[in-house]
Specification:
Layout: E1 6-12, H1 19-29, E2 35-41, H2 48-58, E3 62-66, H3 73-86, E4 91-94, H4 104-114, E5 120-124, H5 137-154, E6 165-168, H6 174-177, H7 186-196, E7 201-205, H8 220-237
Parallel strand pairs: 1-2, 1-4, 2-3, 5-7
Antiparallel strand pairs: 4-6, 5-6
Length: 238
């Protein structure tokens, strides 16, 4: 049903104020592109699902996967990617809903993929100077430290912890994505580490503004577990 169209995967958890602003930008910047949007909701309690249901009445080709509880951002990406591959979308874009991922970059990602010299395009927050300027000092330092630590331990040159990516599905085996075992935030660097060994990855610079509405879902526990997972992954690798 979806052959040659594009799927945009957006995991959500309590993002009620961000649904319509995101969709408005998607349909503004990609008005001439055939696209479907898949929201994956981890049992939001703030009315997010109702917002998505309202959006389905206004916009065409919006889908929703409802999950019974918070199962992890990595898990949400896996289920979304599996759904996209199963339904034969040619291109899959993954992104956040909090306003930090501007849909204006999707057109650039599509242009990179159209050149046929890569199978994955990813965004990089560190290629442009001052791209994280409106972040809080704590979050900026944490993100920069994580980026440098992953590069050092895994010898990977990419900004691998971001979720804003594009995939050419007919050039990628979905089983390779599922080799990444983590279901939380570490899924992003783990999957890109694995995929970059098998496929060509290109990056585009991106500016990442602060969150527009709501609060970050990453807690101190997530940070600790992510660091622990990275160290275990590193020592197993060597």
């Amino acid at each position: 049903m979806a052959k040659n169209s594009m799927l945009i995967i957006v995991p959500v958890l309590n993002e009620t104020n961000n649904i319509f602003p995101l969709l408005k930008k998607i349909f503004k910047y990609l008005k001439n592109k055939k696209k479907h949007i898949l929201f994956i909701d981890d049992n939001s309690t703030d009315g997010t699902r109702n917002k998505i249901k309202q959006a389905k009445k206004k916009y065409k080709k919006i889908y929703l996967i409802k999950r019974s509880r918070k199962l992890g951002i990595g898990s949400a990406h896996k289920i979304g990617l599996a759904w996209g591959f199963k339904n034969k979308y040619k291109i899959i874009i993954t992104m956040d809903c909090d306003g930090t991922h501007d849909p204006i970059y999707i057109d650039k990602m599509l242009k990179v993929l159209s050149k046929k010299n890569c199978q994955i395009v990813s965004t990089n927050r560190f290629l442009s100077e001052n791209s994280l300027n409106d972040w809080t000092p704590w979050r900026k330092k944490l993100t920069t430290f994580r980026h440098k630590l992953i590069r050092f331990l895994l010898n990977i040159k990419y900004d691998s912890s971001g979720a804003f990516r594009g995939y050419l599905t007919d050039k990628i085996n979905i089983k390779d994505i599922f080799l990444a075992k983590n279901n939380s935030y570490s899924f992003f660097w783990e999957s890109l580490f694995i995929l970059s060994k098998r496929y060509k990855v290109k990056e585009i610079p991106i500016r990442l503004p602060g969150r527009h509405s709501g609060s970050s879902k990453m807690k101190f526990k997530d940070i600790f577990l992510a660091l622990l997972y990275l160290l275990v992954f590193y020592f197993r690798k060597i």
